[in-house]
Design a protein that fits this description.
By secondary structure, the protein is mainly alpha-helical. A hairpin with a 2-residue loop joins strand 1 and strand 2. Helix 1 packs antiparallel against helix 2, helix 1 packs antiparallel against helix 4 and helix 3 packs parallel to helix 5.
């Protein structure tokens, strides 16, 4: 870290969940490759088991796994496109390709839920007996174990690298785990009690589970596409790192957003109005380096303001008194080296 006069010591480790783009890209590439392989394998074994058994609960799971191939394939491509460097047409990079892939995933899950729900209702009205129950149950158990293994790997990747596409894929496979468990119960009870309507009812439960999972994926995608702010804890750390140097007397107009593996951060920093341009530049560069330690995949813009002398900025995002003071830490906290507060 670049040092500066009277610099207050702060935690220097990388911020949780954020890695340099190169490392994050390697992790997401590997996990999306694994996801696509699992989707292909599960679709093949479920198709064979459904043809033998005719189970509606198994058909529900097969339909979802078939769409998983498209969803996982889209994620596979999206995470690779998202890390492409900025170009003349996309100055902020291509990170939001991941959010579009997540929207595709959610749409496919909704389509799967509609088809399965329709089939389940028809079999509730006109039930058909299930064949080869043992094979169907075996396939569903293997499918569940594979899905659980993939979800655990995805969770480990997401703990180190931000990716809305991988998060959407994980939500999809979590729904798979739930739907598989419901299908197992439905097939077993239908075979034990001799009532195929139980299997069809299990298909309806799977339908509801898929819809709920798709809604969650839509919300995650919308947050990125609508430039939702980073969590309060992340914003607090940004301000703490900025103001750990007493030469930065306050921060306002802090705006943040995620875009795939990238984070975009911009703010205004209050500096001593007597500093020369070169001195102010040094303060800003030092502050930027401190923030980059926690957010190495960040694109940071810092606008220096002469404290108490800067005119209010106008435009579509004009600041007001709330903006000027929302992120400014109290004077006693700066002198004590304590963490700043955020409104």
């Amino acid at each position: 870290m670049t040092t500066s006069p009277n610099h207050t010591s702060i935690h220097s480790g990388a911020h949780a969940g954020v890695l340099p783009v190169e490392q994050a890209a390697g992790l997401t590439r590997n996990v999306t490759r694994l996801s696509l392989a699992v989707a292909l394998a599960l679709t093949a074994v479920k198709a064979a088991a459904w043809l033998a058994s005719g189970s509606i609960a198994l058909l529900a799971s097969l339909a979802d796994s078939s769409l998983d191939i498209i969803a996982s394939g889209a994620t596979f491509l999206a995470v690779r496109y998202a890390i492409a460097p900025p170009d003349r047409e996309h100055r902020f990079g291509h990170g939001k390709a991941e959010a579009f892939a997540s929207l595709l995933q959610a749409g496919l899950v909704f389509a799967s839920a509609a088809l399965v729900g329709e089939e389940a209702v028809r079999h509730l009205i006109s039930p058909k007996p299930i064949q080869a129950e043992g094979w169907a149950l075996g396939v569903m158990i293997v499918s569940t174990l594979l899905s659980i293994g993939l979800v655990r790997v995805q969770a480990r990747v997401l703990a180190r690298a931000q990716s809305v596409a991988v998060a959407g894929d994980r939500a999809h496979y979590l729904a798979d785990v739930g739907s598989n468990l419901v299908a197992i119960v439905g097939i077993a009870l239908a075979a034990w009690l001799g009532s195929p309507r139980i299997d069809a009812a299990a298909g309806l439960v799977v339908t509801g589970w898929l819809v709920w999972g798709a809604i969650g994926v839509y919300r995650q995608s919308a947050d990125q596409l609508m430039d939702h702010e980073l969590p309060d804890a992340d914003r607090a750390e940004i301000v703490a790192r900025m103001t750990s140097d007493p030469r930065v007397r306050g921060v306002h107009q802090l705006r943040t957003r995620s875009s795939g593996p990238y984070v975009h951060i911009q703010m205004h920093a209050d500096l001593d109005p007597e500093l020369s341009l070169e001195q102010a530049h040094e303060v800003v560069v030092d502050a930027e380096n401190r923030v980059l330690e926690a957010f190495p995949a960040a694109d940071i813009i810092i606008h220096p303001d002469p404290e108490d002398r800067a005119e209010t900025h106008g435009g579509a995002f004009a600041e007001n008194d709330h903006h000027r003071h929302a992120e400014a830490p109290p004077t006693h906290q700066l002198s004590a080296g304590g963490p700043p507060s955020i409104a």
